[in-house]
Design goal:
The structure is a homodimer. Chain A is α+β, with helices and mostly antiparallel strands. Chain A has helices at 34-57, 62-69, 83-100, 103-118, 147-164, 172-187, 201-212, 215-227, 259-275, 279-295, 327-344, 347-361, 410-419, 560-563, and strands at residues 3-4, 18-19, 22-23, 29-31, 379-380, 426-428, 432-435, 441-446, 452-459, 466-471, 475-483, 490-495, 503-506, 509-517, 522-526, 532-536, 546-551, 554-559, 570-572, 579-581, 584-591, 601-602, 612-616, 618-619, 631-632, 635-636. The interface between A and B is large, with 70 and 70 residues.
């Protein structure tokens, strides 16, 4: 069952021309508080200003002024891809303006756009790092130059603005179109048969095509996607899989290579496959998603176990202590999964999105939104050193959040995701509305056949497992609710406005309530929020015989600030279930007797473990907030 | 008990001025065959020619000709440190000439020295990559320039030549001294307070001081060592620990950062500490050695678990599938341990050397000595692709040995180690001779008090555990034999020439036989060679609940070419001991039922394992010789 979509575009980041589900945008869904509402607040209040300030002080935004003044390359600062951070910042601003209608942010947005526009060459080319005397020529370094990657982010920013402020006179869409036209001329069917070393332009072009109706952009995205795997980029230390130029998207069995590149390419490939009704390509992407989730994804939803090349490892290669799990890879994974969800309607995609939101996206920013994890380790073996809030970190991996990085892709990626999060909550199809993420929200929309639907979502999820959907409009429609895969004993109740209904068990997957709703009718989903031990597939060598503790969608962690000593010495007693007490989750843990001065490989069996104590865990997304600490998600078990 | 050494220097790579043990060189020890004799043969016959050919064809040796012709930087090829490979090649040639007296190799050696000497600047500076118009200035990039590192290898080459051919007229020692004099002038107490980003010049200078008697070189080595930890090198992504500039050598608790740099620095530090009677520094090095071996060393003796920065990880961070275990780090570890052994006499140092020789140094070269592992993983998750013998690999990590690398430090490092291996077999002290490694050998030396000692070592170790030491001279002296730490039920027997003695149990450590030897008297050590399961300390998360199989000093591995399917699916039955059968070691292994299409983290317990089969293992140093294969050293156990 596939729906043709003809109604006006919602204010949302990905709007396929067809698919089982249609996204609801910021115009239809408003997050009204709770876990994510607070984070959106902090993002809007602190993070955006923090990013804007850093773009100025690091010189990355001033690079555009130097370009406009014609004085480059003198004075250019930042890495070759620094333009892209400005574009992601613009995208984040566009969504935030869409969400809040903040006039100051709109002024900021327009001012930044003007500086970007002034830097564009007359033929549409736009990059502060290439093409001028004293710089490398345009497109001369497709492996590492990131020119098309940067433009992809420019396109996504322009799309965000056009979706939220259609026909705005700020000029960003024209800048994007001029650049896209140049890309089509340069890299079209009759142009260079080349691709960019970092995928992103594909998803940007596909979305730009959707927003403008210009089919050339979609065709160009298709060309770039089909060219992956032809080996047009040169072999490097990590092989061409680093940039997904080893195997065609159509033939690949699994995501591989650089995890951000892989996910961005997959997201763009879904867009192209959907628009061109390419079932073969979609099947390839389904296969890749499944195997990647089954074998190459951390319990947090994080992806990528190699620091060196920021890449996926092989199947089952998921060391928690060397988890790279780049924040941007989490964002990319959400982009990929969301597009698959819209097309297929399978709640597994929303399950992964939820997991990744709570345990990667929420983990990256500090409580005040002014410091970030770039990489998200699952096991910190030595505590870090306090971070100077004015510093710029040369390190991607760290034990404490840093205010900024030499490569600072993650902060604006988190910002644009949080600012657009309302658009990942719910969808519609011919029958009604589907809720994919549980947040306090106000939702008002029109179904394809014209039926108006309005309701509120009331919940303190994930602190509490109750989700109450209360109708604010009258009428018959179907409410779809996702029961997460971990919710093995969830219950559902329909409370008519006049009373209380019967509770019934619902299984993980999608549950549907078809009803002639009266105003005030409530559907109550109760998700089981008791903490639980989770065990890994024994093929994941690095965590064999260890358990994690989860509670709802949150992965928990043991920190040395709670344990009192190095978490290396912890052994968990799995015969005692973890318990909720005083607002925290506690486990029974023993300290292994200290050794470690001898050769550590011996005949004979393990030493005994005694003297357990109860220790509270912390939500993984909150770890590292109380100063330097060691930390582990997977705790060895004494079974 | 410390011995002052005054007799002429043996033909050996490290000759401290004092210490409990004095090395015997190539002049006293001759390996006559067996495991290492074969490898020395192949090294001399194939590897040296292979390296020489590659140095020519890659342009790294011709760079010296371009320098001499004054045409650089035009045409320079190779990385900034490529000069060092020529120096290590020279060192390997010097030892091989010392070992075999081969006149063709001597011609080659002289020809290469002449080309190197012609490239030296009049003031002693020698580097093809710096200092000319169009190149970066001398010493302008101490973090990455490797100029002093290269000179350290030049010094080691000159030392090898002077020890094996004292007073040779080839000119290498003069080249080295001129360069060393320049280093002392530039970096002396009144010069730049700087260090090189890659340690090596320290050990080179210390040895050059020993061979020339010039105390300035020792003092310069001491200065460089004391300057580590002062932060004179800039902070980088991986921190200053990468080049051991984070903490002083004296204060450090453990080896850390880049594993080759760390070991080279430690080796040089032992040299300086010994010569300057610096017990404080020696204690620091003992402490670092112990903790590094207890917590940061693979079962193979390999060191370094980070690919990105080729570095040690934190304590217990020893993932087998991401073992970097660079071959050069193994060589560096042997340099460090050997120096500690000479000073302290503790057989633990020789234990680690043996382990590293059999499982890192022997693993790197292929059977024909013309291809190499650079990194030595302990778990290969996907089979590699056949390697073109004419290619140069851009990759350090690989599933198959490669003929050459863009960074090709490892092949000449293996070559110089194999060519000088006779000098790591035995030592003397006031009482007699100590055997540290068991190889068929002929040994003839003079004790400090003038007693002549001659004997043969007869053994097929490690194929067989019997080591027979047969006296070829008459006289009273003490034979020291190392009983490896794994040899928990070794026996010793003294067979006088006239009969057979009583067998007695000997414990791991050092066993001594003091005797008035008659010609033909034999001391027979029987080491237990039954294969054994070895279990890791449970803190090494990545191999928890797994076992390795060892036999004597050899670590064994399971290869998919024997298992018939991916080694990820193997579970070993530890209730059945591994057995020797038909010349191979067999274990009982089950195949875990295939899964892997679902989310791999679940409540509930592990799936059962059934249907075991007996599978033969392969010596780890032989893995990858039968074509593409997956491989693992640590096999999950079903306990």
């Amino acid at each position: 069952m596939t729906m043709q979509i003809t109604t006006p575009a919602p204010h949302a980041p990905a709007i396929p021309g067809r698919g089982r589900l249609r996204p609801l945008g910021q115009d239809d869904v408003r997050i009204t508080g709770g876990f994510w509402g607070e984070r959106q607040e902090i993002n809007g209040r602190n993070t955006l200003a923090h990013i804007g300030g850093r773009l100025e002080s690091e010189g990355w935004l001033p690079n555009f002024d130097l370009a406009a003044a014609g004085t480059l390359p003198a004075g250019r600062r930042g890495r070759e891809f620094s333009d892209s951070e400005t574009y992601k910042y613009l995208e984040a601003l566009a969504w935030e303006i869409g969400r809040t209608d903040d006039p100051d942010l709109d002024k900021t947005f327009r001012a930044v756009v003007a500086r970007v526009a002034a830097a564009q060459d007359p033929d549409g080319y736009l990059n502060t790092n290439f093409g001028r005397p004293g710089q490398e020529p345009r497109w001369s370094n497709l492996e590492w130059g990131h020119e098309l990657y940067c433009l992809g982010h420019l396109f996504q920013a322009a799309v965000a603005r056009e979706r939220t402020r259609p026909g705005s006179d700020d000029g960003l869409l024209a800048v994007a179109r001029a650049a896209a036209d140049l890309v089509c001329a340069e890299f079209g069917a009759d142009g260079r048969p080349a691709i960019c070393g970092h995928a992103e332009v594909e998803v940007g072009l596909a979305e730009l095509s959707r927003v403008t109706g210009d089919e050339r952009y979609l065709e160009q995205a298709r060309l770039f996607i089909e060219r992956h795997g032809q080996g047009t980029l040169r072999d490097i230390e990590w092989g061409r899989e680093y940039y997904q130029d080893d195997v065609s998207v159509r033939d690949a069995e699994v995501l591989r290579g650089h995890a951000v590149r892989a996910n961005y390419l997959a997201a763009g490939s879904v867009d192209v496959a959907v628009e061109s009704r390419d079932e073969d390509l979609l099947n390839a992407l389904r296969r890749q998603w499944s195997r990647t989730v089954a074998r190459r994804t951390y319990i947090t939803g994080g992806q990528g176990s190699h620091h060196q090349d920021e890449a996926f490892g092989f199947d089952w290669e998921l060391p928690p202590d060397r988890a790279y799990s780049e924040t941007c890879a989490g964002v990319g994974s959400i982009m990929f999964s969301w597009r698959m969800l819209l097309n297929d309607g399978d709640p597994r995609y929303a399950d992964l999105i939820e997991r990744t939101l709570y345990n990667v996206v929420a983990t990256s920013p500090s409580a005040d939104g002014r410091a970030f994890f770039y990489a998200n380790t699952l096991h910190q073996r030595e505590p870090g050193s306090p971070v100077d809030p004015s510093a710029t970190s040369p390190r991607a991996g760290s034990a404490l959040r840093a205010p900024w990085f030499d490569v600072s892709c993650c902060p604006p990626n988190v910002a644009r995701t949080l600012a657009s999060l309302d658009a990942y909550v719910a969808t519609v199809d011919d029958t009604g509305v589907q809720l994919h993420q549980y947040v306090p929200a106000s939702i008002e929309t029109t179904l394809p056949d014209g039926r108006a639907v309005a309701f509120d979502v009331e919940t303190e999820y994930p602190r509490d497992g109750r989700v109450r959907v209360v109708a604010r409009s009258e009428g018959e429609w179907t409410l779809g609710l996702r029961v997460p895969s971990w919710a093995s004993d969830a219950t559902l109740r329909i409370d008519p406005v006049t009373g209380t209904g019967e509770e019934r068990r619902v299984s993980p997957g999608q549950v549907e309530v078809s009803r002639a709703f009266a105003v005030g009718d409530a559907v109550v989903l109760d998700l089981p929020m008791h903490p639980r031990f989770t065990r890994p597939d024994a093929r994941i060598d690095a965590i064999r015989s260890a358990v994690a503790v989860e509670r709802g969608p949150e992965v928990l962690a043991l920190e040395s600030v709670d344990f009192g000593t190095d978490v290396s010495d912890a052994v968990v007693d799995v015969s005692t279930a973890p318990v909720d007490r005083d607002g925290r989750v506690w486990v029974r843990v023993a300290r292994r007797p200290a050794t470690g001065t001898e050769w550590p490989y011996r005949e004979g069996s393990a030493e005994p473990v005694r003297d357990t104590v109860d220790v509270p865990l912390v939500a993984y997304h909150e770890w590292g907030e109380r100063g330097p600490s060691t930390m582990r998600v997977w705790i060895p078990s004494a079974e």
